[in-house]
Design goal:
heterodimer, A: alpha+beta, Neuraminidase, Serine Threonine Protein Phosphatase 5, Tetratricopeptide repeat, four-stranded antiparallel beta sheet, 12 helices, B: mainly alpha, globular
């Protein structure tokens, strides 16, 4: 009996222990897990785990914004009883210079204006003063021609410093320029010139530069953005992409040389892909992204007023890469980066939204990857389904999702703050001032390659060559290593100059003496030979000992 | 000139007399297969050295990646063996006088400048910066072309050909090497399939036996 109870006690103890262990294990896994795992790329282009630079702070739905007020008759913002209180397939949003959000609620054909915390300020549904007309069937069944007042599938918006809204009203084929009261100032429609050879004007995105020139993207037009003067006349195309050089393009080009006129007509023309979205930074440079998957030429561009890409000039890099570097195939589907929106933050940070993976890639102004964050639907809180647009303000990043109908707010982590501070100093060339921040970054994330480069450069500036060489070795940065190496070699030569010249002198003297003796036939060859023989006899027992020891060792 | 030299002295004689060295060696029936084997081993060593050493800025891969010896082995020893076999196969048909052993020895002796050049250039890369790459290139190129000259004159002496015929035969030999390597790959994949087939049968039988 006693033994049985003992076993029972043991058993219960075991079960208890196991239970406790599983509990503790579960607890740790639950608390340690982060919905989005961040990564960066090492020197060989392989993805390595990284610390999160941004974490999800909040998700805001239409209800949180207070869209109920639109269907509440007692509210000053009342529109109609049936006004939906949620977003529907919102395609774009814009953060104005007065820190107000303008959300393009495409499915509901309206523009929502909120403050920076997403409290509803206004809703724009109807616009007066349009020159366009449309034919409508009224209640009696007769067709009536009337002025266009409503938006039809608006896709994009831009708001300038005077709070003038520019709305890309896609299915009405116009860009509306209107004030805060919903009164149309100008309309930009299909240009009526020979130069514009597309039949339609389905515009999706719009931006305005400091001179109030309007740039419009139509997906059907691949010659670049359509540029209008402030008065509404067509100026030309702006900043077309280049054609990506593929094997087919080369083949067609060669074939074209030999083909006849009629054969040539059947050949496919090499056309560039259009860019999907753009943003204008505080200095007036326009950044574009190309959404077509698997395009590496001109995926991201920084355009100067002439429409030329200056990204490669300003960054001093020949081969810039954006988005995911490795294509991932997961259960039969291949995921390839599709860059859908871009926004330029403080200090020139470039944030790019990838539609496929729902990730945001943040680059510094030299196009070094800083962080990847966010993820697609599989993860819970920050999972995106149709991420459509991205905006940023200070240390916050907002992402608009067209399927989940919400806005996700990301907040910079402490690690992110360290990196941003460090990168800002680093890009201004203040390597030594940035050193402490980079050391903190390296402490928190050992995979952060840029930290080692930066620490190395700071040490190089301090003439601490040996340590700098070590850091460049860790970072696999050959060019910086080479510079540090050159400096150290120079220092070494300078410090040991007397010794080196002395050695060379001695060598020269010895050579001269030997030459002299040889000439005279006075080299005591017998003496040298006997010396070597003597050395041999002295060394032989030693060598034998080693050999026997080795043999003995082997036998054992 | 006195031609009673040790095998090592013969080696240096051949290397430093590219045009008559091989003829002398053939006349005196010299050349050691043992030294040739050592040279081929050092060819392998030089290739490993090139892959795994060097100044950081010149050879970053050496400081990171996993090292795979098989491609290097193929690039040195297997290339040498196929060269010898292909050369022998073609030149016996084309009235060459060399036998397999002589081809092996003469080819191996010709490789010495290349080996020394590549080892030296790797060693030099520890002391120079990227701007001074020319020194490295010069060393390895001198070694390479010296070896090419030696190889041509070696084959010429070995088979007692004219210059043009030597060149033609060497081109043919390279084609032969490619053929042989292609066949080797084919045979290897075939044997893999056969091996897999027998292995599946074995596993199947073992399942039946156990159940």
């Amino acid at each position: 009996m006693i033994s049985v109870t003992r076993i029972n006690i043991k058993k219960t103890l075991c079960v208890l222990l196991a239970f406790l262990m599983t509990c503790s294990l579960m607890a740790t896994t639950v608390f340690a897990e982060d919905p989005c795992t961040s990564y960066s790329y090492n020197a060989w282009g392989k993805a390595v785990p990284s610390q999160n630079g941004y974490l999800v702070k909040d998700t805001i739905t239409g209800k949180d914004m207070g869209l109920d007020q639109l269907s509440d008759p007692e509210s000053p913002l009342f529109v109609s009883e049936k006004e939906p209180n949620a977003l529907n397939d919102a395609k774009d949003f814009f953060l104005s210079s007065k820190n107000e959000f303008y959300i393009v609620d495409t499915g509901n054909n309206r523009i929502l204006k909120t403050d920076v915390n997403f409290n509803l300020l206004a809703c724009y549904k109807t616009f007066t003063g349009s020159k366009l007309t449309e034919e409508v069937v009224d209640e009696t069944g007769a067709t009536v021609t009337r002025e266009v007042t409503d938006l039809k599938a608006p896709y994009g918006i831009y708001v300038d410093n005077d709070d003038i809204m520019y709305i890309a009203d896609r299915d009405n084929q116009r860009v509306v320029k209107c004030n805060q009261n919903g009164e149309v100032i100008t309309e930009y429609t299909r240009p009526d010139t020979e130069l514009y050879n597309s039949q339609s004007f389905y515009c999706t995105k719009v931006i305005v530069d400091a001179a109030k020139n309007v740039y419009v993207i139509c997906p059907a037009v691949n010659k670049g953005a359509i540029m209008f003067s402030p008065s509404g006349t067509f100026v030309g195309y702006y900043g077309a992409n280049r054609v990506e050089v593929t094997a087919e393009v080369i083949k067609n080009k060669i074939w074209r040389k030999f083909a006849s006129e009629s054969q040539r007509a059947t050949l496919v023309n090499a056309t560039p892909v259009e860019y999907a979205n753009f943003d204008i930074d505080s200095e007036g440079f326009i950044f574009t992204v190309t959404e077509v998957a698997n395009v590496s030429t001109d995926a991201v561009k920084k355009l100067n007023p002439a429409g030329n890409n200056i990204l490669e000039l300003t960054t001093n890099a020949a081969d810039l890469k954006f988005g995911d570097q490795e294509t991932v195939t997961y259960s039969g589907t291949t995921y390839q980066t599709r860059l859908t929106d871009i926004t330029i933050g403080d200090n020139g940070l470039i944030n790019i939204l990838d539609y496929t993976s729902g990730r945001i890639f943040q680059y510094d102004r030299d196009c070094n990857l800083l962080f990847t964050f966010g993820c697609d639907q599989e993860a819970q809180k920050s999972g995106f389904d149709n991420p459509n647009a991205i905006e940023c303000l200070g240390n916050l990043i907002y992402v608009l999702d067209g399927r989940n109908n919400d806005v996700t707010v990301f907040e910079e982590t402490l690690f992110g703050a360290y990196v941003h501070e460090a990168v800002e100093l680093f890009n201004r060339g203040l390597y030594e001032e940035a050193l402490e921040y980079w050391r903190e970054v390296a402490k928190r994330d050992g995979n952060y390659n840029m930290a080692y480069v930066a620490i190395g450069r700071a040490l190089l500036n301090q003439d601490n060559y040996d340590e700098a060489l070590e850091y460049f070795k860790i970072a696999f940065d050959d060019e910086d290593y080479n510079r540090a190496f050159e400096a150290r070699r120079k220092e070494m030569l300078r410090d040991n100059f007397t010794l080196i010249t002395f050695l060379i002198l001695i060598l020269v003297v010895i050579m001269i003496v030997i030459g002299y003796l040889k000439k005279k036939g006075k080299i005591p060859q017998k003496l040298i030979r006997t010396f070597f023989k003597w050395l041999g006899t002295k060394l032989k027992p030693l060598a034998d000992k080693v050999i026997t020891a080795a043999k003995g060792g082997k036998k054992k | 000139m006195i031609y009673d030299m040790t095998p090592l002295q013969w080696l240096s004689h051949v290397i430093f007399h590219p045009f008559e060295g091989y003829e002398d060696m053939r006349w005196k029936k010299q050349g050691s297969i043992k030294i040739s084997m050592v040279i081929v081993f050092f060819l392998f060593v030089a290739q490993v050295f090139k892959a795994r050493f060097g100044g950081f800025a010149f050879n970053m891969r050496a400081y990171s990646d996993i090292f795979n010896v098989v491609p290097i082995l193929v690039q040195s020893v297997v290339y040498y063996l196929t060269w010898v076999v292909a050369n022998w196969s073609f030149c016996t048909l084309l009235d060459g006088e060399g036998n397999m052993k002589r081809i092996a020895i003469y080819s191996a002796y010709a490789l010495v400048p290349y080996i020394i050049g590549s080892i030296l250039s790797t060693a030099v890369s520890y002391f120079i910066t990227l701007d001074e790459t020319i020194w490295m290139t010069a060393l390895s190129q001198i070694g390479l072309w010296w070896s090419v000259v030696l190889m041509i004159s070696g084959m010429k002496a070995c088979h007692q050909y004219s210059f043009t015929k030597t060149i033609a035969c060497m081109v043919l030999t390279v084609i032969g090497m490619l053929l042989m390597l292609c066949l080797l790959v084919l045979i290897m994949s075939l044997f893999q399939q056969v091996w897999l087939f027998f292995f599946t049968i074995y596993t199947e039988i073992m399942y039946r036996v156990r159940s």
